[in-house]
Specification:
The protein is of the alpha/beta class and 292 residues long. The chain is built from ten helices and twelve strands. The two termini are 30 Å apart. The structure holds alpha-D-ribofuranose (RIB).
């Protein structure tokens, strides 16, 4: 895993504020998160051996972020300290319906450089899973070094993606908004449009996450819609991360992308049933318990 670690500052609200609006919320929760760390913890809780490469600040949040990863069994020898720079922080407002709005201050995550990568470690990984909360030049360099499967979750959607990176990606995992931004599409992305946009990308396969509607698996001209279990979400934060962690975990043992997606939508749905990012990530038995 090469990615971000953030301390999430989470407040429950009736609705996320509009521009210029102030809303009163509930008590503040400080919760370990960051798309990279969440995906690392998700895969580790599902039983996978995971190593995290990234940067945190030399501060109290950095210590908390390290502790949480270690507690989940993630190898943090590649998680570097960045003196004089704060750890990443995410400000998250969670609505009563479980949806959220997030602002990220990347801090140390933004200081990760290609020279922080260890070529041998990346070449040895069966799957290299990355997101877009770290500089894209690092993602591209890691994709060049990888010998295993490259899985990229382009979140948050970068303004411009080098074509070389998309060429190097084996499995791209965008949501509908990210897919539209990556392809320059304006207007709604329904299922047929998502399939068409995904087919136009140079990656071998694309798995488009659709929230409560599950996911669309597009490999060449083959399109499969995988539905998600119906749930009443408490907090959707990290559901996409749980999905990516579960997908990558499955792909280590079996290249069947549709089977991996069937499991990943269950893990994602189970993650929406508890508050916060990392504390909401389930073990396999918790997935079954939570979904009934
Ligand atoms: O995907 C959820 C994550 O996005 C949060 O944990 C937050 O840190 C942001 O990175």
């Amino acid at each position: 895993m090469i990615g971000s670690c953030n301390l999430d500052l989470v407040v429950g609200v009736e609705h996320v504020p509009l521009v210029g609006e102030t809303v009163l919320g509930g008590d503040l929760h400080r919760i370990t998160g960051g798309k990279g760390a969440n995906q690392a913890v998700a895969a580790a809780l599902l039983g996978r051996r995971v190593a995290m490469v990234g940067r945190v600040g030399d501060d109290e949040s950095g210590a908390l972020l390290r502790e949480a990863l270690e507690a989940a069994g993630v190898d943090i020898s590649g998680l570097l300290a960045t003196p004089g720079v704060p750890s990443g922080v995410a400000l998250i407002a969670v609505q009563r319906d479980g949806d959220n709005a997030i602002v990220v201050s990347p801090g140390a995550n933004g200081r990760l450089t290609p020279s922080d990568l260890q070529a041998q470690q990346i070449a040895d990984a069966a799957v290299v899973l990355m997101q877009a909360e770290i500089p894209l030049e690092v993602v591209t360099e890691a994709a060049r070094m990888a010998r295993g499967l490259v899985v990229w979750n382009p979140a948050p959607a970068p303004e411009q993606v080098p074509l070389e990176l998309l060429d190097l990606v084996d499995v791209l995992v965008p949501n509908q908004t990210e897919l539209a931004l990556l392809t320059g599409h304006r207007g709604p992305v329904d299922l047929p449009m998502a399939a068409e946009l995904a087919m136009g990308l140079p990656c071998s396969s694309v798995v488009v996450t659709l929230g409560a509607a599950g996911a669309l698996v597009v490999s060449g001209r083959d399109v499969v819609h995988v539905e998600a279990p119906v749930v009443q979400p408490v907090d959707t934060t990290a559901a996409g991360d749980a999905f990516c962690g579960a997908l990558a975990d499955c792909l280590v043992d079996d290249p069947d992308l549709v089977a991996a997606t069937r499991w990943a939508v269950r893990v994602g749905a189970a993650t929406t049933l508890r508050l916060g990012a990392q504390p909401s990530l389930p073990t396999p038995s918790q997935v079954e318990l939570l979904l009934g």
